[in-house]
Structure formats: C-alpha cells, structure tokens
Amino acid sequence: MSSLMSATDKSTLKYIGIGLTVIVGGGVATYAFLHYRQSQPCRPPAPGSDEELLRQVLELKQEVVVLKNNLSNAVTELRKELGGIQSLVGQKRTRRSRSTHTTRSSTSNRTAGSYQTAYSDYDDDFSDDEFDIALDHLENNVNGNANQPAPGSKEELDAICAKVDALYDGSEEDQEEAMRILQDNELNVNHKNSWQLLWRLSRSHVGAYDIRTAYDERCLHATTAVEHSKQALELFEESADVHKWYVISLGANTDFVGTKEKIEIGYELKEHIDRALELAPDDPTLYFMKGRWCWGVYMLTWIERKLAATLFATPPSATVQDALEAFNKAEEIQPGFYKSNQYYIAKCYYEVSDYSSARRWLESALQLPCNNKDDRDAHRDSSELLAKL
Questions:
Q1: In Å, what is the CA distance from 174 to each residue of 203, 359, 372?
Q2: Who has greater pLDDT, 283 or 207?
Q3: By CB neighbour count within 10 A (0-12 exposed, 13-18 middle, 19+ buried), where does 286 fall?
Q4: How far is CA 66 from the centre of its chain?
Q5: Which residues have C-beta within 8 Å of that of residue 126, sequence separation ≥ 6?
Q6: Rounded to whole angstroms, how far apart are CA atoms 382 and 204?
Q7: Confidence band (pLDDT; 50, 70, 90) for 130?
Q8: Mean pLDDT lowest for which of 17-26, 83-92, 229-238, 318-327?
Q9: DSSP string of 153-206?
C-alpha cells in the first residue's frame, strides 16, 4: 500500500478521535469530533420524510443494478454470437481468396458470367465492395469488444477500483460518482463478494457522512460504512486498507452510541491499527492513527479509567511519550505529510512542558498548506496554542 496520503484520507482521519474521543474526557474538544452531538440511537425514518425518500432511492438503485446485470448478461451472449459470426465470415473470406486466386490463374477467355457463378454460393445480394465494408465493420466491432475486460475478470475489477480511486481524490461530485459506481457493482453477481469494492464502499460512506448535515443521514452513512468494512474484513484480513477503513468507519459510528460502547470500540480500534501497521509498516497515516489513540487514552479522566477497568480485565493504557513516538514516526516516514500530525507533536511537547519544541512544531505546522477543512481546523488550533507560549 502506498505511503502517500490523499487529501480526502486526511479529512477523514479526525474520526479516529473515536475511541480516542471515546476515552477522552473533560473539554478536549480538539480531540473529539469537530462537532460533538449528544449520543442518541438511530431512529427509523418517518413515513414521507426525507430519510424515507433516501431509503426508497437506494432501493430503486438496487433494482437498477439488477437490470444492469441482466443487460450485461445479454451483452455477453451477443458477444458470443458475434464471435460465431466472425468465424463464419472468416471462412467465407478464405474461400473468396482461394476462388479469386483460381479465377485469376484461369484462361483469359473465362467469361464474366462464370466469374459470378464462382461467388454465387456466398455473395448473394452483396457486391464485392459492400461485402468488404460490412466485414471490416464487423471485425472492428468484435475486436473492439475484445479489448474490454471480460465480465467478472480480475482485469475488470482492477479497472473499476482504479477509476473509483481516481474519483475519490477529486471533488465532492467526483466522490459521489465514485459511490454510484461502487453501488452499481455492489449487487453485481461478478463482484458481489469483492473485499476490494467493499472497503472502498466503506470509504465512500465515511466521505458522505463527513459532508452531510442531517443527523439521520449521517447515522445511515456511518452505520453502512461499518457494515461494508466488516464484510470486507470477514472476506480478507490481509489488507491494511481493510483494517484502516474498519477503524475509521467505527470512529464515525461512535457519534451515535453511548459512552460504554465508545470505550468498547476504542479498545477494538487498537487491535486493528496494530494489524494494519504489520501489513503496511511504512504508511504514515497509520502511525498518526496510533498516535491519536495513545493520546486519547492518555487523556482519560479518572471516571473514564474506572469505567474502562470495569469493562476490561486489562484496560487500555498509553503515555504521552507513546503518542509522541507514533507521531514522530509518521513524520519520519513522510515529513510534512499532514498538518494535524505536526500539531499533535506540538501538543505532546506542550504537555511535558518542552515549550521550545512545541513552538518549533507549531510554527512548522502553520507553514503547511490548508487543503481541506481538517487542515484549516488544525491551522486554527495551532495558532491558538502558539499564542499561549
């Protein structure tokens, strides 16, 4: 997996503040979700509401996917038919070639009528030129289809993933298009159980959760993201991307659960972050996620620690040095890859009263560009912390 980090990946990493926020107490708003909401369960949409309309649209999309699958099967059969026609036409061209050679080598007094008779079994209503034009057109169409990946093939899946990844790093409209492509293939019998598509679906729903404002819509996308990433995890556990997006989708989902559930999720997060790091030890984003987890555990209040102790025989523990080590490792792999990473390095130094180091990292963070809302938030927080030094 690439060690580079897309701008959209960066904007979603704030959701690692989950079990991180999970275990964050007091007024640590910079670690919690950017906009904290009072936890409440997902409610079924009311008849006639926007949420009910959204569900109906999703069901309609699924029906469209089924129709597209049927059409795909019909196209496959048509291609087989074209292949058969191509074979027959190839045989005809071979016979024509042989007949033409025989005709040209015959005596010069051979009549035009006998020449026509030699082709009468094959040409019927076609003139020579018309036959060649039709044959070339058919061959071009068949050969053009041959260049397309076969339905259900690895090449087709790779092409879908490449297109979706390119769109995901684009505008919000591009990301919506990426989700549409993934949803179209979600029920495709050829790729129904593709872990590659499932973790990308989880990523798309986290992105949709991030830009939505209606509570029920955000809840729907967050829970759907978890479902898809969990499916991907059940199918294939050897992908760092699968573990990464399972962690991030769980983080988004903690906005809709109680404190006890948040702490339980936070404990689970560490396992999957560590597993992802085993699979992709050079991914700076994973070290940032680990640092956020350590910071969240370090910031637990006494009450929250007591609650964690009642839930686990060995409650999670971490120090500010653990967090700093993870953030520094991310910076070592890819310097300046993320404004928030430098901001949290500064917070760690500030926490241990190393103010000169904190100032140096804050000034560095402020020099990095602001590419999205998460960068702008980190820029604001860095400015505020620097003002305290």
A1: 14, 38, 16
A2: 283
A3: buried
A4: 22
A5: 134
A6: 29
A7: low
A8: 17-26
A9: -HHHHHHHHHHHHHHHTS-HHHHHHHHHHHHHHHT-TTTTT-HHHHHHHHHHHH
Instruction: Determine whether 309 is exposed, middle or buried from the number of CB atoms within 10 Å of its CB (0-12, 13-18, 19+).
Output: exposed
Terminal-residue alpha carbon distance, the chain: 39
Residues, the chain: 389
Determine the 3-state secondary structure of 6 from DSSP.
coil
pLDDT-derived band at 6 (thresholds 50, 70, 90) equals low
pLDDT digit string, tens, across residues 254-280: 888 887 888 888 888 999 999 999 999
Highest mean pLDDT among 84-88, 142-146, 263-267, 334-338: 334-338
Query: Is residue 96 within 8 Å of residue 152, measured between CB atoms?
Result: no
The span from the CA of 317 to the CA of 314, in Å, is 9
Average pLDDT, stretch 337-348? Answer: 97
Residue 170 CB-half CA count within 13 A: 12
Each residue of 237-250: pLDDT tens digit? 999 999 999 999 99
What is the Cα–Cα distance from 283 to 133, expressed in whole angstroms? 56
What stretches of the chain show up as alpha helix (H) in DSSP?
Answer: 7-12, 18-22, 50-105, 112-119, 128-146, 154-168, 172-186, 195-211, 215-235, 240-253, 259-279, 284-298, 302-311, 320-333, 339-351, 355-367, 373-387
CA distances from 124 to 32, 96, 147, 306 (A): 79, 13, 32, 92
Quickly list DSSP for 92-137.
HHHHHHHHHHHHHHS-TT--HHHHHHHHTTT-TT--HHHHHHHHHH
The token pair that represents 279 in the structure block: 């699979």
| Number of other CB atoms surrounding residue 260 within 10 Å | 13
Contact 3, 240 (CB under 8 A): no
Instruction: Tell the residue number behind the tokens 């996917």, with chain if given.
Output: 65
Determine the pLDDT at residue 124.
46
